Amino acid sequence: LQASMPKLEYIACHICSRDREETLQPGFFVRNTAAQLAVQSVWYRRALELDTNALASLSTSRCGKNPLKSLWRGIIVPLVRAERMAEEAKHAKPTSGGGRTPRRVQIIVIDALSLADDA
Questions:
Q1: Other C-beta atoms within 10 Å of 16: how many?
Q2: Which end of the chain is more exposed for a tag (fewer CB within 10 A), N or C?
Q3: Is residue 26 classed exposed, middle or buried when 0-12, 13-18 and 19+ CB atoms within 10 A define those classes?
Q4: Residue 75: which residues within 8 A CB-CB, separation 6 or more?
C-alpha cells in the first residue's frame, strides 16, 4: 500500500500581502515562483537552461507586460519538460532494491490570491 502513496514535494510558495504591494503583481508572482522552482528542482533548472526562450520570458519586462504568457512559457512548459527529463533519467538507471519508485506530487502553494483582485 505504501508504494502506491505519492511522494509530496513542496516546490514553491507565493503569498499575496497588502503590506507588500509587489506580491499583488502578477509579474512578481511569476518571477518569484520561477526563482523558487529553480532552487528546488534541478530538473526545472535544467529545462530552463536548455530553453533560452523560456528563460527570456522570465525577464522583469516580459513578466510585467504579459504575465500569463510568461507563466506559461517560463513555468508551465519547463515544468512539463522537467517531468519528462526526470522520467527519462529514472528509466535510464535501475531502482535500488527492485522496488517501484513512488509517484511524485509537486505542490506550489499560493495564498491570499484574492487580495490581488482588490489591488
A1: 21
A2: N
A3: middle
A4: 30, 33, 34, 37
